[in-house]
Amino acid sequence: MKRITIGAAFALACATAATPLVVTGAQAADHGGAEKATAFVAADAHAGLVKAAQAQSDAFVKALGLSSDDAFVVKDVITDADGSSHVRVDRTYKKVPVVGGDLVIHRDASGRVTGHDGTFTGAITVDLAPSVSKAQGQAKGLAAAKAHKARKGLDGAAVAGNDLVIYIAQDGTQRLAYQVRTTGLQKDRTPSRVRTLVDADSGVALRSFDEVHQGSGTGIYVGSVPLSTTYSGGTYSLRNPSTGNYTTDANNTTSSGATMTDADDRWGTGSNSNRQSAGVDAQFGADKTFDYYKTVMGRNGIWNDGRGARSRVHYDTNYENAFWDGTQMTYGDGAGNAHPLTELDVAGHEMSHGVTQNTAGLVYYGDAGGLNEATSDILGAGVEWYANLSTDVPDYYMGEEIDLNGNGTPLRYMDKPSKDGRSYDCWTPDMNGWDDQGAGNPHFTSGPLNHWYYLASEGSGSKTINGRTYSSPTCNSSTVTGAGHDKIEKIWYRTLSTKLTSSSRYTAAREGAIQSAIELYGASSQACASVEKAFSAISVPAGAAKCSSTSPTPTPTPTPTPTPTPTPGSNAVVNGGFESGQTGWTGTSGPITANAGRAAHSGSWKLWLGGNGTTATEYEQQSVTVPSNGKLTFWVAVDTAETSTATAYDKATVTVNGTTVASYSNLTKTSGYVQKAVDLSGYAGQTVTLKLTATEDSSAQTSFVFDDIAVQ
């Protein structure tokens, strides 16, 4: 049994129970407004919140002044650390779904409805008697799917569903429609799931778009990284016991494939000749994305219920793509099966489509389609910043490593999206088409929001960040000062999860983002000012939401400013002895402790990873600037209840920028503390991520206790 942190009832729950109610709020507020950060909620508690909200759905209908024929179906509940909540609902009218009628209902800590966000809350007036038969509507929908510009040559097209719905257009017009879902294979063998809305009175196809979102990559990128795997029956499988993420080998077919396994838990070689190498990239990408959402955003996985996702590698033959299909990630091996498309950007981007699907549900056309695609770019970039790999340095380009254009240029530029020759820099009201192709392609209409993200993060003008040169103009000739990408990502995630709905436009994105910035950082914060000015800079007009006129004097964005190299002899690690508790460190709640269950090397506090005796993964990390001739030193003590002398059931690693520099297991127990020294001179002058991680299996504890960590 693991330690009990002094004076913390929640720490006891975390140590002894698999699913504590609330672990922590996502790190969000510099001004003392952390109470508005999203609270992390365990899976069973989240299900209870949804059930309780559904029981109150009739009261929500009345609070919004709707009729007795209206009803709400609760999809999700997001809870803030102060107890307020945001209930996402779908609307029905006389049991007919209202497409575009979904809402987010806001409640205070007492449960009182305080407001709502949504595109349409008016009365339903459309006649529910169709003039076109269901069979005719289905035929029209199938024909529209086959004619879909990018889907010509669609193989095996078949209707998977056909439902009568009330469709609310962007201008508020109501139409009775058939929602026809068609499945098949695109001409490049990507699965297709086209949704077409057919007017039930005229038979005209109103909207058509594919729900399978694609991305691209060209290689094996992450290098040597730690992985959490599962051991059973003498074999390791590429399945993370904490997140549930797992990776299968489709064996160059279109099947689900079998979970990848290994005899010694040493996966891949970094070469495409080893089939495991692509699996390492895919699994690392899935786990890093899960960790980003959990640690930074307070979200418990894609579905917010703790479930992991499957990643399929080696899909089909000569398949040059990757995609998220609503349940899993799939990666092809590229041309000639020589370049698996498993780059980290791809995983972060595509799995973020899953988060959008399970929050705002932004449809894939018009403004909403652009917001959908840009969300994956923004939060996918966030995953890259979070991972901070030396093999894939964070930047404001998308697909920069894959060279799909064949000339070394990225797929998309966030500082000036129009540099790709197709994307928009500035928003216009008519920036969309009837489907997800041509001028309305979400990859192009995503441009303004990507531009907003860069401007709000880094500001306008020319600058060099992480060795890359950017030059970002504004659409109104203004000057924008950035607030840092980390704040802007948190603001955008809050906007996505608590403000936007399926058919939101750029104007709603502006309103929601400013309100989210106020809630997280305050109306007079630099973050709020940056958000507001960046939306004006991409030509989205002002609405009701405004920051305070007493915004502070802008200060330069810290990201591009080089960090001074520490003076030799001083410790570059903040709070390396842990005597100041969590100060300087981010990660799992609980392992930094003064509990007497394990002695510190010096003082009273230490980092106690493991010691649970049940399936668990814990870590702590911080950014450290390495001095010239830098050396990492630390003290570690390992004890275990495992009896095996041959199998490493429980493991710990120390990594620098994702590269393992020390590893321990139940096979390396010590007699008290031992010191370890690692040469970091190769990182001199660089700011790196120092991370300590431990993973345990389902029984018999192993404790990895670290103390007095220094980089000098």
Automatic annotation (TrEMBL):
GO terms for molecular function: metal ion binding; metalloendopeptidase activity. It comes from the Bacteria. Residues 215-357 form the Peptidase M4 domain. Residues 70-120 form the FTP domain. Residues 242-259, 580-592 have a biased composition (Polar residues). Keywords: Hydrolase, Metal-binding, Metalloprotease, Protease, Signal, Zinc. Residues 360-540 form the Peptidase M4 C-terminal domain. Residues 553-567 have a biased composition (Pro residues). Residues 242-278, 544-595 are annotated as: Disordered. GO terms for biological process: proteolysis. The active site is at residues 350, 443. Gene3D superfamilies: 3.10.170.10, 3.10.450.40, 3.10.450.490, Galactose-binding domain-like (2.60.120.260), Neutral Protease Domain 2 (1.10.390.10). Residues 1-28 form the signal peptide. Belongs to the peptidase M4 family. This is M4 family peptidase. It comes from Arsenicicoccus cauae.
